[in-house]
Design a protein that fits this description.
Residues 1-22 are annotated as: Disordered. This protein is of the alpha+beta class. The chain has helices at residues 2-22, 58-70, 88-95, 162-175, 248-276, 296-302, and strands at residues 48-52, 74-76, 100-107, 111-118, 124-133, 151-154, 190-197, 200-208, 215-217, 221-232, 235-241.
Length: 303
């Protein structure tokens, strides 16, 4: 019995020693010349698949590439045909070993929709993407380390209603880089901000300046107009439907109607002026000709 106890104690010591060897504790101050030790244990294995359908614009393509560079835990996939059904994306995510997905869907070469889904059980949300600005634009002066882990900042309005709480958790799992990810850097130098304004989600990316801690916008920036939230992945029962949402087709139709009404009002105003215009501007008094004297010059001019 004593031998068995000694053997078990030695085994436990060896196991604890192995665990201690695997764990790496980073010092509080790291010089730039010192090599960065990486943690080999990776517990939160979140992977996000980012791809699009055929027919998207160049601006949407640049936005998708910017998100891939900012999210080291993302994976790429060739464009999907627009005729394929959305349920195929669940199989693609399973093949790529991804449990989150961002899918950009282009329609009519001008409208962009974004699907954010938790694969394979859901939930999923569909958004209309508006006001896209990419990182390559000159007015965005910020910069950050490639592969660094971002801070996620959410507006207080996300805690006001249940559907905003659900979107907050979905965005946290999709955009949050897992700790000790092999492709990530052990630094935090930029912030992802999600704010709610006008029933829309505004996304911004800011750099944390080392001098004074102020923020400089890096990009990209875009606005997500929520349409529906589904219980399943890319389908299922509708959990929430935005009552304030107006589709791009209806918005363009309303613009055309407003322009047509302006033309109709102009034509009606012209017709009303012609109807109200009298045939004679003023009446002549026949007695005024009595006082006109006929001279020889007036007779010559009349001839």
């Amino acid at each position: 019995m004593a031998k068995r106890k000694r053997i078990s104690e030695e085994n436990t010591k060896q196991q604890t020693g192995k665990r201690q060897k695997k764990e790496i504790v980073l010092p509080p101050v790291i010089t730039s010349d010192a090599p960065v030790h990486r943690q080999t244990k990776w517990t939160n294995k979140q992977r996000t698949l980012i791809f699009s359908s055929r027919g998207i614009s160049f601006r949407t393509r640049h936005l998708m590439l910017d998100l891939r560079t900012l999210m080291p835990h993302s994976k790429a996939e060739p464009k999907m045909d627009r005729k394929d059904k959305l349920f195929i994306i669940n199989e693609v995510c399973e093949m790529k070993n991804c449990n989150k997905c961002l899918y950009f869907e282009g329609k009519k070469k001008q409208d962009v929709y974004l699907w954010a889904s938790n694969v394979p059980k859901g939930p999923s949300a569909k958004f209309l993407v508006e006001n896209i600005h990419t990182m390559s634009e000159l007015k965005l002066t910020g910069n950050c380390l490639r592969g660094s882990r971002p801070l996620l900042s959410f507006d207080k309005a996300f805690d006001s209603e249940p559907h905003w709480l659900l979107l907050k958790e979905l965005f946290t799992q999709i955009f949050g880089t897992p700790n000790h990810h092999p492709k990530s850097q052990p630094f935090t130098d930029h912030v992802f901000t999600f704010s709610i304004q006008d029933n829309r989600v505004w996304f911004r990316n800011y750099q944390i300046l080392a001098e004074d801690g102020s923020l400089a916008e890096i990009g990209p920036r875009f606005v997500l107009n929520p349409i529906r939230i589904f219980a399943g992945s890319f389908g299922g029962a509708t959990l929430y439907q935005n009552p304030h949402y107006v589709s791009p087709n209806e918005y363009r139709r309303a613009l055309r109607r407003s322009q047509a009404s302006k033309y109709n009002n102009r034509v009606e105003a012209r017709m009303s002026v012609q109807l109200r215009k009298p045939e004679m501007t003023y009446r002549m008094d026949p007695t005024d000709e009595v006082f006109q004297t006929i001279t020889a010059e007036s007779v010559k001019n009349s001839q």
